[in-house]
Amino acid sequence: SVWTSIEALYDFTYKTQHVEVFKKREQWFEKPEAIPYALWWIQAGEVPTENQGKERLDYLRANGPTPYAFSFKGSWAGYGG
Fold this sequence. Notes:
Layout: H1 6-15, H2 18-23, H3 25-28, H4 50-63
């Protein structure tokens, strides 16, 4: 999905009804061995592709957080550029 800011995504994930589902994820899913998502910044109007998502996730798993791909914990979460 595409969000206007890291804060908006964080708020949705942890401060809406979504958090109730998120808390129960262990009932439905096995704990992932590696980070299951990657975040990255895009230009307004850009539509990321599935292949870009896979590439960024693979990169994050192999290299850790960088401006190219990061997680909520990455130091680039507030970078935006």
